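Supplementary Methods, section 5.1.

A reviewer requested that the exact input to the structure prediction be made available. We therefore reproduce it here, unchanged from the version used in the analyses.
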Amino acid sequence: MTTRNRFIAAAFDHGQVPTIACFNRATVGLGVNFARLLAALQTFVDDHFVPVWGTPAKLVKTTTFRKGAWALAFLDDADVANALGYHDLTPDGLPLSKVFVKSTLAVKQRVSVTACHELAEMLVDPAINLAAMGPGNVFYAYETADAVEEVEFTIGGIAMSDFVYPAWFEGFRKPGSAQFDHVKKVRRPFQILAGGYMSIFKNGRWTQVFGSPAKARRFAREDRRGHRSTYRGKTHRMRGVAVAGLTRRGALPRRKRNL
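The structure derived from this sequence is encoded token-by-token as follows.
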């Protein structure tokens, strides 16, 4: 099976439970014991995320990539990732998320929250190619943590990221009619909290909208290289996949359009 076909299978065959190889190559402390962090992330997946999104996964501690497994890599920053040849896929052509530890700490964020954020978004949209039609006939990226990214809750004393529910992407719902995020801060579909943002496809290109001017200023100061959102719309990654359409609740077929 070619790399491209393996990745397509990973993106759309949700009948299998992926193993995610988690390894730490950062040269600075994470602010939490790595084994404890992985245990908290597994609890997050099993007890909080799967009941909502139905995307189970088994996290395993490794020292590098594992054949046939997705990956969650903890690295200093995007420069290190590029030097090591870590791009948007594992060597097997499977989903890869990167947690940039120095970059996270530089903007006074918690590594555990960033890791949780990246994990949640990889589980729902591993191919980084799903979107839902939102207000104003604009496509919103199917990212589950961006709109609420500065809201947290704890598992065993370790901070985790809030995440939106499928109802967030369902524009027909009335305000207050459903649960739209895990910690119940969001009141309506497509609402972006003050500390959040979303990637949208408008006028033929991807751009961002922010929950507040302050968030826009913080976003502009961050090193976003290597972030999942930077790969959205890169057609070479999943050429030919867009014709499959979207299968998630609230997500609409893209009519053979690479978003």
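The chain has one domain: 3-241. These observations are discussed further in the main text.
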